[in-house]
Design a protein that fits this description.
207 residues; alpha+beta; 6 helices; 9 strands
């Protein structure tokens, strides 16, 4: 039988080594409530929260919704930077690629990209993120369009605490709050976003 590795401090040793490797760079994480105190011991400070909602996405159709195309990347990168407060072109170039299990859609108005969303299949339904939009109605329409591209109706979306009104909208539409984490940083947090257009983060694993 394989040797038992739990309780031998291996996880903590890896964690400590990873922090050393990061050096003076800022580190961000989404931590469960039970671990907040442990993260605080390592110098992490809570700056907000992220809530996971699950439910059947309502049909919301708007003009200008279409699949993402490679030539949209420059506009998408700009929207992503404004929504998050930092740039991440390498992440976006890989995350937004269309596959059989992952699709991205955009909303276009007057020849300008105003929002986008990515859906990826999971065990039940699909996870959607990021969702970046100028308003709630567009966010819902992008979520529906992205899920529809994968043939899914049940969706999971992780909503930052700056979107309290959107959280209430999802609850009113039958979504359930199933999980919540603390957004924590060690080091200088990113500058606050210039606009409140982030309705769903990409993933709790990658922010």
């Amino acid at each position: 039988m394989p040797a038992r590795i739990q309780g031998r401090g291996i996880g903590y040793a890896l964690w400590t080594e990873a922090l050393k490797h990061a050096g003076t760079r800022t580190i961000g994480l989404d931590g469960v409530a039970a671990q907040e105190a442990n993260y605080a011991k390592s110098g992490f400070v809570k700056t907000g929260s992220t809530a996971r909602f699950e439910g059947g996405i309502p049909v919301v159709v708007l003009p200008g919704l279409r699949p993402m195309m490679p030539q949209d990347m420059i506009a998408i990168a700009t929207l992503d930077r404004l929504a998050n407060g930092y740039t991440r072109p390498c992440f976006l170039s890989g995350w937004l690629l269309g596959t059989e299990t992952q699709q991205s859609v955009v909303c276009e108005k007057d020849d300008q990209i105003t929002g986008f969303a990515t859906a990826r299949l999971c065990h039940q339904g699909c996870k959607i993120g990021p969702v970046i939009a100028p308003d709630q109605q567009t966010a819902l329409a992008l979520m529906h369009s992205a899920a529809q591209a994968l043939g899914a109706s049940d969706v999971i979306v992780d909503v930052p605490d700056l979107q309290q009104d959107f959280r209430q909208t999802l609850i009113a539409k039958g979504f359930e709050l199933t999980f919540e984490t603390a957004r924590m940083y060690r080091g200088q947090p990113p500058n606050p976003p210039a606009v409140q257009t982030l309705y769903g983060i990409a993933t709790m694993e990658l922010g």
